[in-house]
Amino acid sequence: MDAATQLASDFAALPEIIRAHGIERGAKTAIVGEDGALSYAALDAAMDRIAAALQRDGLAHAQAVAIVGAPSVACATVFLATLRAGGAATPLAPGSTPEQLAAMINDCGAAHVFVDANARAALAGQPIAARMIELGSADFDAWLAQEGTRPAPVEIAPADPFNIIYSSGTTGTPKGIVQSHAMRWAHIHRNAAAGFGDAVTMVATPLYSNTTLVVFLPTIGWGGTAVIMAKFDARRFLEMAEANRATHAMLVPVQYSRIMAIPDFDAFDLSSFRLKTCTSAPFSAKLKADVCARWPGLLVEYYGMTEGGGTTILNCTLNPTKLHSVGLAAEGHDIRLIDDDGNEVAAGEMGEVVGRSPAMMNGYHGRPDATAAAEWHDGEGNRYIRHGDVGRFDEDGFLILMDRKKDLIISGGFNIYPSDLEAVLRTHPQVADCAVVGVPSKAWGETPVGFFVANGGADAAAILADTNAKLGKTQRLADLVAVDELPRSAIGKVLKRELRDQWKAIA
């Protein structure tokens, strides 16, 4: 079956689509990175050799194959080959501690873990059951099946596991989020009009992030070219985008901020861009407006969860008056707001976001209780995923987010939303970045404390006084702490748990 027929169907397995691309557009570059490049024909052949070797080693249907390394062509190829072998690709964050990596490898039940040299050194001596194979080494070459070997055909069902993504651990121990082939097919298929067939997509976030996969997979699925950065650098991104005549990119807000702050940003030729997307963290209206004004192509923000649920889409370019929102529910996505008792709230009121769509996780690997806790069911028994965010719909149906529910501060019986305080703090000319967290208080139960990165010389006491003068009496910050930088995950989320720990250490 050719690629066009598969892409027009109700469901198709990505490995077979890549097989068709290898036949129909074999010479076209599929993936390019700092470790080389692969055409679609070469990618197809490399996937065969890896998949055949995994099957030779006894890979079970839906079994995890772990991958730990900096973003590379080699890591991406193993990811895709795992699917062809019938396994579940499980990319892990190399920045995790060796103990965390070992725990995740053992938790997912992987018999193989593919690593780069740095990950191999980090995992040395760790108690893992999986066979460790270093990419690009003589051991990897010896392990591979012979050239021309094809794996046994695998029947892939929509509900079969496609990948396992471990949560960032910003709220505790990482959980393995199992995503199905049907969920990933939804991500590929919904991009029919996004022009990925002739795209050159900048991949500037890690392969273990859902943020990356929602653009990397459609690029490969539709037959475009993915340009992989091993490590993000704002100037290097602009240089590579210009040199490769990039058309698409998915970036997180902190990356947009760093790119737009490059003094000679306007000197780069970015005229080839057609679509820029963003997700994963709060994206300020001011920054969205700057990107729309100075960077060619549409800017679209997606809001959703790695676990799936509901997605909202904001076309920032076409909705300049709605930049404070995260947009409208995507077609076929049902998003509702509920109160603490699980009841839907009235129109215009705030509530916890829950969502339902074709793109929803199977569950957390080996953790049925955690899976159940992440779900909400409506009166007809339909399953929704709890997003953990608090928000409200405006009169036009655009979703406006307030905060993560867990970050809500209850001080003296009053609800305080950190985002409200951060918005005021961020307006001070001496504040380059900021975050507000709730800390224990004997008098109030909790009280808000701010952390900020200075924009040049700054007087924390003066900024605190200025900010509190603009806040309501119940909102005022108890303290303001200057830091060199805010702790962030690899995809730009502020690690507020670390800020709370930091406060406890200095309080």
Counting DSSP E segments of at least 2 residues, the number of strands comes to 26
Number of separate helices:
16
Structural class per helix/strand content?
Answer: alpha/beta
Strand content: 25-35%
Main sheet: strand order: 2-1-10-9-11-12-13-14-15
Radius of gyration: 23 Å
List keywords for this structure.
507 residues, alpha/beta, nine-stranded mixed β-sheet, five-stranded antiparallel β-sheet, 26% strand
Describe this structure in words.
This protein is an alpha/beta fold and 507 residues long. Helices cover 31% and strands 26% of the residues. It is built from 16 helices and 26 strands. The strands form six sheets. Strands 2-1-10-9-11-12-13-14-15 form a nine-stranded mixed β-sheet, with helices on both faces. Helix 6 (117-123) links the parallel strand 5 (112-115) and strand 6 (131-134). It is globular. The N and C termini lie far apart (65 Å). The model has no long low-confidence stretch (mean pLDDT 94).
In short:
The protein is α/β, with parallel strands linked by helices. It has 16 helices and 26 strands.
